[in-house]
Amino acid sequence: MLGIADYLWRLVPGNPILLRVVENAGKKRRDAIIRCGYLGLLVIVVLYTLVTGSDNTGDLAALSRTSTVLFQQMSYLQLGLVALLSPIFTAGAITQERDSQTYDILLSTPLTNGQIVMGSLLSREFFVIALLVSGIPIFAVTQIFGGVAIESIVYSFLIAASTAMVTGAMAMAIATFKVGTRRTIFSFYLFIVVYLVGGYLLDRADFFHLTWIDAAGNKVRTFTSWFTALNPFLALPVIFKDKAHLPPNLADLPQGYQTWPLGWYWTSPASFYVCFMLLLSLAMMVPSVLFLRRLAQSTTSIKGWLLQNLRLSKGDRTRKPRPVWHNPIAWREARTKASAARSTFLRYGFIVLGIIGAVVLLAMHSTELTPALFINHSYDPTKNTLYIEGSHQPEIPVAPGVEVKIGDAPATLDNLYGRYEVANFTQDANQAIATIDLKEYPRKLDPDQARSWLLGLTIVEFSVILLIISNAAASTVTREKEDGTLDLLLSTPITSRYYIWGKLRGLVAFVLPLLAVPVASSLIFIVHDVARWLAARDDNFQWIVFPEAMLMMPAMLIIVCAFAAILGMQMSLRCRTTVRAVMSSVGIVVGACAALGWCGYSVLQSSTAPELAAAIGAFSPFTLLTLLIDPYQFAGNGFNINAGTSYDPPGVRIVAFVVCAVAIAAYAMGIFSMYKSMVKNFDMTIRRQSR
Amino acid sequence: MAAVIKTVNLTKRYGTLVALSNLNLEINEGDCFGFIGPNGAGKTTTIKILATLLQPTWGEARVCDYVVGYQSRSIRPLIGYVPDYFGAYEDMVVQEYLEFFAAAYNINGAQRTKIVNDVLELTDLGFKRDAAVDGLSRGMKQRLSIARVLVHDPKVLLLDEPAGNLDPRARIEMRELLKELRRMGKTILISSHILPELADLCNTVGIIEQGELLYSGPVADIVRRARAGTVVHVGVLRAPEQAAALLAQHPDVESAAPNNGYIEVALKTGVRDYSFIPSQLVAAGFQINLLREEEVNLETAFMRLTKGMVQ
């Protein structure tokens, strides 16, 4: 019994690895600044909510409502920071295999596998856990005003803590099983971002919600989805008892879903999330504990072992040399980074998945559904009659002043020649058609949905590409500084101009195949639309993607990628370490895109001058994508079908086209000036960092 | 003979730390110059300045009459720099690595392929041309480093501890390769801690300590200079302290003290004859079991000239 107690004591409280970190934790200035910043943010949220709360009447009920809002905002902030900081602090574990000077020493001590794994994990999580604990007093403020159950606060902390724990356990497992390198750190961040954001977005699709017909014959749809119990940002609103995220009652669920664990999964997603993530952490840590030393002794990684057994590699690390370009710097950036086995797999995976996604969207958009009532070129002008399929009436005469509408827009008699779903029609006393409301022929994915999905797809693809190029650019010089290859290059006749230009050219060439994916996705729709347009020759033809996108999209996406690359290189040149350069560069790119996007979307949605809105929107890549793919939803005023304008006002499109060209020129000038400045300061900056 | 490398009062400071202090160095064309000094003496700093990677704080460094800092662009094609680390690129094989650096020297097309093949043959790396550079052994990596600096056929080679951490076979192979390069007429500046090999390889050496050049000149000269006071090792069967005290009283003896089981007898400058030692000891009843003049080589010369002080 004492032996177990002693083991457990040594495992966590008396763990020397953890103790070393805990003892030194208070001494680091950077950690103190981050902690103060975090607490400062929480305090600002508290003060802001209290001052600007909508219920400032002073009565207790109002204060309790404000307290609820306060709790929600602080919980989101806490979870957001944990989701951001936890990968940063735990990702270092991935490279411990590489930086193994201390790791090997640890393995040669009498410390048990459990102590090493738990010590490494908790020492990396310590900062995040300390951050969470430091916020408790501020959360306690909500208890003064009431309105928030203690249980909710506990759940809020548990969700954040389990998120931190699963992130750390994942990093430790990657490190133990030798499947990670320095580059894996970025993939690790990317995976977490895609998981969190992707889950959040997919939750909005009906497909992932449960639907069934209840006893009364009504169609019931759950507010929560299959992702709610797996994503912290979806599990969190459940504890707020938010009506939009209310889980179903067990008794209401269909029979098959009432049994454990599905019943638990659907009715209590927050507790399921916490338990599942903690169990998942445990599941990832147990093999690490069991096999830590055995894996450390092995000379091949799991990846190498797999590749050899699948006969994809001979294990001797040889291959045919590739031809080197005249500019070796550009060649290195473009070719060697892209040709690593993992990169090749990810690049082709990205390209194939992106294209498959677009083809599936197009296939769904092209697949027509048979509506209850429809017309199919069935207007006979000679007899002035219309045959409406499904109406169970023979050819119906059309009244002389018939009112035709397509959607909400007025249309003409000519439209009766087309192929539309008939939403509604009325007949006059002579049984002639007096009004007829037409709709686009229904498809598995109607045009609005196709645009929304395509826009979502291209935005996600471009965001991933931006993150990839920012990371590659930010690590490009620092990595050479760290491994010493920069000195080798600087002792050759390569000039700073040649070096920086080579890097920029190589980085852009590196992402060109990836950029082809969103462009090709749009091109598929444009080709499809052109074929439809040629067949229909309809004045009110609705493009899924405007054809000018073929010129604007590639130019804008390439120039923005080049801009992100030069920005990342600037950071890479200035920062001493790769991690700092990557964090700064990605932060700036994300911040700039968010700011530009926010401004652009605000203007698009609120401006009464559509041309001005289009002009401002065309400056940001994300709003430009919106203008080209889905303007009807986001740029309402410019493309407002209710305002009596046509679907795609040419004026607005011309303005967007011209301003896009101006924006590209502006980005190019920005790139050129940054390039000149880097060339000018290159020697000075490098020399200052030399030791 | 023209000085290919010349430094005049070369000084380098890192904040308050003086890494180099008024270093005056001259290396002639075709010389193989061994740069010797304890860790932190300033060898790497000197080599980095000559490789145009650092700017001197004061003084001047010239390579082939071009001034470092002002004419660095003209210097770079003339030098080949091998640092004390490898500098491996991930995801490159040996041939790509060499072609990459050949392209950096603007060597392209068929000429590049020919040069890379020649260099691979010269350094015996042809059989590794398809191997990943980061998977090579340390010896192979050092060999590849030498191959890298040969692709542009430089006049001057700046080698910072190229034999560090190599096994005996790799070291011998590296030494033979460097001898071959010397025969080809390259001017070589090499820093190393393996002094017997430097003595074998170099015709001139420089000893640096705490950023100051203590000696620079031919190897034979430094040995001669270190030999200035002859040292004799004497072994007696009993009472070495008394024997040492007896010898210390002799007018030709500078000092005599027991050391590691024998008596180290330093004679006064100019004294070469030490036949008085056995006669005096035997006369005093001591039994002698060792009498040997200390061999003076580069290692002993280095130990005598430096104080073992590091920065």
Please write out the topology.
The complex is a heterodimer of chains A (691) and B (311).
Chain A: H1 2-11, H2 16-25, H3 29-52, H4 60-90, H5 101-107, H6 113-134, H7 136-145, H8 150-176, H9 182-202, E1 209-213, E2 219-225, H10 232-239, H11 262-267, H12 269-297, H13 302-309, H14 328-339, H15 341-366, E3 374-376, E4 379-380, E5 385-386, E6 396-406, E7 409-411, E8 419-427, E9 433-440, H16 447-483, H17 485-490, H18 496-536, H19 549-574, H20 578-606, H21 610-617, H22 621-629, H23 631-634, H24 650-689
Parallel strand pairs in A: 6-9
Antiparallel strand pairs in A: 1-2, 3-8, 4-5, 5-6, 6-7, 8-9
Helix pairs in contact in A: 2-6, 3-4, 4-6, 4-7, 4-8, 4-10, 6-8, 6-12, 8-10, 8-12, 14-18, 15-16, 15-18, 16-18, 16-19, 16-20, 16-22, 18-19, 18-24, 19-20, 19-22, 19-24, 20-21, 21-24
Chain B: E1 3-14, E2 17-28, E3 32-36, H1 43-50, E4 58-63, E5 66-67, H2 72-75, E6 79-82, H3 94-104, H4 109-122, H5 138-150, E7 156-160, H6 168-183, E8 187-191, H7 195-201, E9 204-209, E10 212-218, H8 219-226, E11 231-236, H9 240-248, E12 253-259, E13 262-267, H10 276-283, E14 288-293, H11 298-305
Parallel strand pairs in B: 3-8, 3-9, 6-7, 7-8
Antiparallel strand pairs in B: 1-2, 1-4, 4-5, 9-10, 11-13, 11-14, 12-13
Helix pairs in contact in B: 3-4, 3-5, 8-11
